[in-house]
Specification:
Strand content: 5-15%
CATH superfamily of the largest domain: Aldolase class I
CATH class of the largest domain: Alpha Beta
Number of helices: 20
Strand order of the largest sheet: 15-14-13-7-8-9-10-11-12-16
CATH topology of the largest domain: TIM Barrel
Number of domains: 2
Number of strands: 16
Amino acid sequence: MQCIVCRDKTKSFEVGVLKNLGLEVVKEYEVSTFFSLETYKAVIDSKMLNIPLVGIFYEEHQGVDGRGVIQRFLAKAMEGKENLYYYPKPNIYLQVDSVALFVLFNGHTPERLLIEIFYKEQLLPTQYRNSLHKHLAQALNFSSKRITLEGRPLSNLSKDWKFFEDNLVNTLDITTRVKEFYPAPVHINLGTINKCNLKCSFCFFFAPEYVQTHTTDFFKEYRILDEKIVYAIMDYSAKHDSIIDLVGPCEMLVDKRIPDFIRYGKDVGVRWISMTTNGLLLDEEMADRLLESRLDSLSISIDAATPETYAKSRGGNFEKLVKNVESFLAKIEKRNVNIYITLSIILQGGAQEEVEMFKQKWSAYKAVNEIYVRNLVEKNNEGMEVSHDRNFDTSCRYTCQKPWDEIHINPDGGVMPCCTMAGAIGWENKVMGNLYEESMDSIWNNLITQKMRLDLIKGDFKEWKICKDCQEWSYRSIEQENGDVVSPCIEFVKIN
């Protein structure tokens, strides 16, 4: 069978592997980046000649049986003759926006790839890129997916992909080659203080019912992360193309330094900075500072449609909150600021009956991009009644992706791998390392982190008791008809 080859010019590769499988290379394209015109040409050739496109962006090593990984992968692809891809993953539900190995047989969409190439080269503004993808999807009868498990690069080559499952090869890659495939966390969740202006009834950190059960001293005194560490995190994020979410264990706007941190992050090249707030401190001055900082996204937790319900769950001044949010949205519309706004409501404390009222109220604003109807995450064995729909399946456990994908940085400098550990900090302050003692580069692949990854793969929770009963790993499997993978939110309402 004839084929086209597109490969990373920095990776070594023996063409003889293809010949041994009966593949004749008609043309070979060497690229320095996936999103290039050379890749586009390779896709066009493959489509026009009706022959498979073999993508090799993977440094070969011998598999456990002595055969090379590329050979194992290609043999499987030739056997099934379906679009097949491989990227080392802790589980198949993790979206990784990188490329390792793929074979494209059919369903070529070079138009989508070309849009992304122009966008990556800054020849196409974001709004035009999004609009073109939307119209093209309608023309090609594509469903609009929030999550593409094959990753964004391959989703622009075709809409149909299967994952190459080889547990032995995959385990070897995600444990011994972490620096290559996961050189840094994609998501950095950053909390700079441990103080809040509310005591919400459902909050693990500040609700009186929870506070009285805390067993660590984390909230016993005010903690504030040194600005030198914050700036270092921004530099690290810019270097590794990580995104930053400014979120708990606090109300971020209690820390008046936040707009300055955001401004610095954008100045040094952090591609995306988002923040979550309860909105009560979003007064005129803070609103102006945030908009001037070039914050990319703001999520405001409103969580009610009436003062009565808000008082039950959050206990704050609902009228002040609504005024702040309305004023902030008006500023965005008046100044035509490019910021992504989400408003959320949690299904708790009577809010279940106010969802439609909430959506009707806030969907009227052009500055609102999305409304989230959120589930309430549970803290085990604390006796609190929780109301929400379950959208996860725990019947078949698989490896949690968090230690390969994200970190949570606390105001004491501690680094944790996930939101579950961060949420339990009042009861257990178990960290991978501390930024007052160790660099982020070091913590990401130190002995503690390596051991945690390996233990989770093996299902050994002796040192990670909080992981044993955690259900966060299971937010994945209930796929809606449009192909979306369900998240902890039970409903996404796209507004603008």
